[in-house]
Each structure stands twice: as C-alpha cells, then as structure tokens.
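task queued by scheduler; priority normal; single chain, no ligands, no partner chains; default sampling; output format set to structure tokens
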Amino acid sequence: MDAELRVCINKIAPTGQAVFVDDDVEQVTMVQIKPRKSKPGGSKGLNQAETARMNADDIRQLVSHDEGQRLEFKRSLAELGTATRTVAAFANTDGGVLLFGVRDSGEIIVVEIGQTTKERIVSRITGATDPVVYPSVECVPVEGRMVIVVRVAPSDNCPHLAEGRAYKRVGAADMQLKRDEYERLLLTRSRAAYGRQPVLEARYTDLDEERIRW
C-alpha cells in the first residue's frame, strides 16, 4: 500500500489518544494508545478512539486505487448483504474502508440515499455480525454524487461472524476462516478477556510506576 492511500484510510485517530471522563469525580484522563502493528500488506491506523470526516479529495484518492486488503467498492446498497461479510473480514484482519456508489473500476456512480440510509446500513451490519461490529458511516458528496463511506476498525474481539460465518480479508477477497484459524482467534480472544479482568483486591501501592506511561 503506497503512502497516499495510507493517508486517506488512516483518517481515524491519527494521534493515538483517547479521553476518558469520570463524571463522578470530574476527572479527565488522557491515555496514550499503543498503535496496532500492521500485518504484511496492511497499514497502521483505523483506531477506534476517534474518527475524522472524509472529503471529496479523500474519496478521489481512494478510488484512484484498486480494491485491496483494506479497500472495497460496492455499486449500490443492493450489495449490502455481501458487504456485511466484508465488514466482518475487515474487523477480523486489518480494518478497512468500504465505499458504496463506486464501480470495481473506481468510477463513481449514482447511489440512492434517503433520510434513513445511514441508519439502515448500521442496523443491517450490527444485526448480521456477532460479536457486533459498529462501523463508522458517512455520506460524502463528490462531483454532484454521493458516496457512502463505511469504515471498520481492526478488532480485538475476533472472530466476528457475518450471517453465522467468520471471514478474513485476503487481498481484495473475503475468505471464510478455516476451523483452525477460527479456533486460534477464539483462544486469543479468551486470553485477552482474562487479561482485562479487574483485580478487586488490588491497591494503588501494588502498581509498578515504572511500567505505567501517562
């Protein structure tokens, strides 16, 4: 993936910071998020902490490239069913961007958009994925036409299923996970869940200050 395409796709959480607000004690804590290491052929970014809106120039830059590991084109919302597989595949792999209203060739075409279009897309995706994938959806005007942008962050809660099946992104294709791949991701998720469990009996004095970064 070249530098220009990486900049367009990575218009999410460039700073790697998240803000957590504790309303009870009126405390604001800034937490530095360690970037995910990209897999071969992928790129960093698509952090879940923040999103930055895309503009027409971003869309033009994206459609100037072929579909790939983190980029998918759909002609219309009639392909929303297969798009849920792509969303799950993105979440299970490196994250990515899905564009409705774009031909495979990169040509921007007319796509029908109504008042509830974004809600319809989100509802279809969240209803078809398990664990649920929550995408970012926006409509971007480009030369008098609208392109629907669906962005998906790489997930730490893999494997995500779409219509009961698990997929991964391989190049420009959504491939169903093999049984051993699925079980390996499940094992990774269970270990991560154990590591996030609170230690109720721990005290502040138990913390190793040298290992904590603020």
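post-processing summary
- The first strand starts at residue 17 and ends at 22.
- The radius of gyration is 19 Å.
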